[in-house]
């Protein structure tokens, strides 16, 4: 909204006082800081309200390790605090003319609503089952289709035309060498990325601080990737012109060999808001947690990360960025497949973090090591930029 105010006033005398808002770098930082501040300011009061409203109710699944049972009574739905920060920072500092910003916000809100239904059913029915998985999948698919065909599709010519690039980029390989076009099949591919990421983050949210830190790290990586793909800033590079080697200005995305993303800098504002909101939530969610994220937060954040991966053309490299989440969901799939086929379990318990718990590793050590792995994977993803 502040950016729209700047655009309205920029031609007048008042516009020069808001000139700093035209710089994406400022708005990226401001979005992150503002979401952090709103979370820190409202967090204690919101948590106290949740504690009173959920007094005496168990928010811990029965099929978790015994050590988790002592956490009964800790309020859930804390993901609402994260969403508040994300929307506050994004709406305040992003360019709301950008189509991709509204897609990201819609998907985050839609998946947050799905998670809220799940949490509300758990609380109202006083059990840990919540919304059946097939209904979750239906709602996730519905919001995905609304975003793609309602916002990222042009219907003016009669036949629909996707406004999102259907070519995919491969990490460590320049787009000019390998950039396969999936056509309309891309819709299905994007659905797998978004829904898969959402459910993977949901499965990871099983220990205090486990899901939120890798989410912040992934979002920080996407800040860099989105800004690089969307900025108009040029980098000096050597190029041979008429047989003469000279310095010329090359757009960042072209210099790095990645796809150009319209509105990429605005997606960076959105991602920075996730980082800020995540930091404020981690303040209250670090072990021992004062509040749980709940599905309202984990499904929404996973949906947001998957959507950003799709919109920023980092669908494939997101498998590296989201490596911790991928390992968690794969551990569940492997466990289920193994038990159905052979009657034996590969892991002591799934998802993967419960396996380490059963092996005797402390909760804090598991969480910190998962954070470290997330940082390493984020570094690998960023390295793929230069290695293209």
Keywords:
single chain; 388 residues; mainly alpha; two-stranded antiparallel sheet; globular
Report on this model:
There is one protein chain. The mean pLDDT is 88. Helix 5 packs across helix 6 (185-204). The chain has one domain. The protein has helices spanning 2-9, 24-53, 79-93, 99-125, 133-150, 185-204, 212-230, 252-256, 264-285, 295-311, 318-321, 323-342, 352-358, 363-386, and strands at 153-154, 161-162, 234-241, 244-251. It is mostly helical. The chain is globular, with a radius of gyration of 22 Å. The strands form 2 sheets. Strands 1-2 form a two-stranded antiparallel ribbon.
Q: What can be said about the biggest beta sheet?
A: 2 strands, antiparallel
Strand order of the largest sheet: 1-2
Structural class, from helix and strand content? mainly alpha
Radius of gyration of CA atoms, rounded to a whole number: 22 Å
How is the topology of this model organized?
Elements: H1 2-9, H2 24-53, H3 79-93, H4 99-125, H5 133-150, E1 153-154, E2 161-162, H6 185-204, H7 212-230, E3 234-241, E4 244-251, H8 252-256, H9 264-285, H10 295-311, H11 318-321, H12 323-342, H13 352-358, H14 363-386
Compact description:
The protein is mainly α. Helices cover 61% and strands 5% of the residues.
């Amino acid at each position: 909204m502040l950016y729209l105010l700047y655009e309205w006033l920029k031609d007048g005398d008042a516009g020069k006082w808001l000139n700093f808002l035209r710089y994406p770098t400022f708005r990226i930082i401001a979005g992150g800081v503002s979401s952090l501040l709103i979370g820190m300011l409202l967090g204690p009061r919101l948590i106290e309200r949740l504690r009173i409203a959920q007094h005496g109710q168990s928010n811990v699944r029965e099929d978790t390790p015994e050590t988790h049972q002592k956490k009964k009574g800790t309020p859930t739905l804390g993901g609402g605090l994260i969403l508040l920060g994300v929307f506050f920072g994004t709406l305040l500092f992003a360019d709301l003319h950008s189509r991709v910003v509204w897609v990201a916000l819609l998907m985050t809100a839609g998946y947050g609503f799905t998670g809220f239904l799940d949490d509300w059913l758990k609380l109202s029915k006083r059990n840990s089952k919540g919304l059946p998985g097939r209904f979750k999948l239906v709602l996730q698919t519905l919001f995905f289709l609304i975003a793609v065909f309602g916002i990222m599709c042009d219907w003016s010519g009669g036949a629909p035309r996707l406004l999102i690039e259907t070519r995919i980029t491969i990490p460590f390989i320049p787009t000019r060498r390998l950039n396969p076009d999936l056509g309309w099949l891309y819709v299905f591919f994007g659905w797998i990325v978004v829904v898969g990421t959402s459910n993977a983050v949901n499965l990871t949210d099983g220990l205090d601080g486990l899901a939120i830190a890798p989410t912040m790290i992934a979002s920080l990586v996407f800040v860099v990737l989105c800004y690089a793909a969307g900025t108009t800033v040029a980098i000096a590079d050597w190029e041979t012109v008429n047989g003469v080697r000279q310095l010329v200005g090359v757009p960042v995305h072209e210099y790095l060999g990645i796809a150009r993303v319209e509105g990429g800098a605005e997606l960076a504002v959105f991602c920075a808001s996730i980082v800020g909101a995540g930091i404020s939530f981690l303040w209250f969610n670090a072990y021992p947690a004062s509040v749980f994220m709940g599905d309202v937060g984990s499904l929404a954040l996973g949906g947001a990360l998957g959507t950003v991966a799709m919109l920023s053309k980092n669908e494939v490299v997101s498998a590296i960025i989201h490596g911790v989440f991928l390992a968690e969901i794969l551990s569940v799939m492997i466990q289920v497949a193994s038990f159905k086929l052979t009657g034996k379990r590969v892991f002591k318990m799934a998802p993967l973090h419960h396996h380490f718990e059963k092996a005797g590793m402390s909760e804090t050590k598991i969480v910190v090591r998962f954070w470290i792995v997330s940082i390493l994977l984020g570094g690998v993803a960023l390295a793929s930029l230069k290695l293209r």
